[in-house]
Design a protein that fits this description.
179 residues; 23% strand; alpha/beta; 8-stranded mixed beta sheet; 23% helix; 12 strands
């Protein structure tokens, strides 16, 4: 199956399930953060019925962790910038809220959005390649952890992959941790 076909199918399912209140526990992620002594967390601002990270990020910020969100620049590259819940966000050209560019950081952990995933820890995003390029670029000089956040119905038996697709360290659903 083509990536575009998988995207369309899974996004339609996710849209239909949006009101089902699937219980997602962030405790699993917090255990990974504590175990690895991670202080700077990169995340995404949830759109399109993605796993909602906002309450979890707010809790982390209240516990003293640094939170960052991605910003896409004119060269279609992504970087992470510090953000607090007191800071304003602006919509980028894709309609995704992002912080004003103030202080660029390299997170020690990145919570990665995804459309579909497989048990081998690969993901399909929206097709822009932003996260794959970022993981490739930064992974050359700094170690960090990646966690894909998903609902269990987004699992695909075998994803079509190309040489640019990056494997994640973990994928966490409401039911299971893949590592």
């Amino acid at each position: 199956m083509l990536k575009s076909t998988i995207r369309k199918k899974i996004l339609n399912i996710r849209r239909r399930k949006k009101n089902q209140n699937i219980n997602f526990s962030f405790f699993k992620i917090f255990k990974i953060i504590k175990k690895n002594n991670l202080k700077t967390i990169g995340s995404y601002y949830p759109v399109n019925f993605e796993v909602d990270t906002l309450n979890f990020l707010n809790e982390l910020e209240n516990k003293g962790y640094k939170i960052s969100l991605p910003v896409i620049n004119k060269n279609k590259q992504m970087d992470f910038y510090l953000w607090t819940f007191n800071d304003l966000l602006k919509l980028n050209k894709l309609g995704i809220p992002e912080p004003e560019k103030i202080k660029k950081v390299i997170p020690e952990l990145i919570l990665v959005p995804l459309v579909a995933f497989d048990k081998k820890l690969f993901r399909i995003g929206y097709g822009g390649g932003y996260y794959d390029r970022y993981i490739e670029k930064v992974g050359k000089f700094k170690k960090f952890k990646t966690i894909g956040l998903s609902f269990s119905f987004q699992e695909i038996k075998k994803l079509p992959l190309n040489k640019f697709d990056k494997k994640l360290d973990f994928i966490i659903t409401e039911n299971k941790i893949y590592s």
